[in-house]
Amino acid sequence: MQSCIRINGGAWIRRFIMLRNLYSKYSPNVGKDNEKSRIKWVETTLKNIPAGKRILDAGAGEQQYRRFCSHLVYVSQDFAQYDGTGDGIGLQTGTWDQSKLDIISDICNIPEPDSSFDVIMCTEVFEHLPDPLAALKEFSRLLKTGGSLILTAPFCSLTHFAPYHYYTGFNRYFYEKNLPDNAFTLVEIAQNGNYFEYIAQEITRLHSISLKYAKKKPSILDLVSMFGVLRLCNKCSQADMGSNELLCYGYHILARKN
Fold it and tell me: How many distinct structural domains can be found in the chain?
């Protein structure tokens, strides 16, 4: 009897592992391009900036976009207080290297003269600012007339980099209202993802979140159900007709200083 139980148990575990591997290999790619799409947009936008322009990477963090600025005069800024562990709540990076920053300051009070930059880039930072409108005002001060503002921020985000996480995200109406109020003309506003892609992203994240916060592992039935939901999200995303007005990863903004 005991031998039979061990054999059946082993067979069940093998089937579970096989199904989990098939799930990982064949699950649709929907919900997996959040960062990839953002990096591509930022890279393309930066390449369109004429060579020799002076650019400020505001809230630069680990300067992941510096590699796209080789044709520009690059200056990095950050407040340099996040260390990768924060207060231990939510999503943390574990490590965070800010040893090579050019300017360490409050983003709302950067020690540079008026009109000293041709371009300001600020990516995935606004949700970490107590006063994003003050930062927008500071950008307006620092940019030359005709200068470009490259800005990205989430529409909706989980708690991350805590305790420095003050907003879950920003709708397009935030930019349409506040950019003109701070002497900017909105040149481009591009949504990143849609409702179905965002839902798929969180379904894909469900395994790790359930382990951390509920100490639960997905069963075979759970994996099958998750696969079915991802397939539905993939089909709906391919046929999408504007669900980003409800929910998306975030917005990519290009604006010009008046």
Answer: 1
Write the pLDDT tens digit of every residue in 87-139: 999 999 999 999 999 999 999 999 999 999 999 999 999 999 999 999 999 99
Indicate the DSSP class of residue 169. Answer: -
Domain encompassing residue 165: 34-194+246-257
Task: Note whether residue 64 is domain-resident.
Answer: yes
pLDDT in tens, 136-151: 999 999 999 999 999 9
Contact by Cβ (8 Å): 60, 110: no
Distant-in-sequence contacts of 32-38, Cβ < 8 A, 24+ apart? 32/200, 32/201, 32/204, 33/193, 33/197, 34/192, 34/193, 34/197, 34/201, 34/249, 34/250, 37/192, 37/193, 37/249, 38/123, 38/124, 38/152, 38/192, 38/249, 38/250, 38/252
Q: Tell me the backbone φ, ψ of residue 170, rounded to 5 degrees.
A: -135, 130
pTM of the model: 0.89
Q: 3-class DSSP state for residue 32?
A: coil
- Asked, for residue 70, whether it belongs to a domain, the answer is yes
Contacts of 129 (CB under 8 A, 6+ apart): 59, 107, 108, 135, 166, 167
Six-digit token string for 65:
């976009």
* CATH number for position 84: 3.40.50.150
28 close to 231: Cβ distance less than 8 angstroms = yes
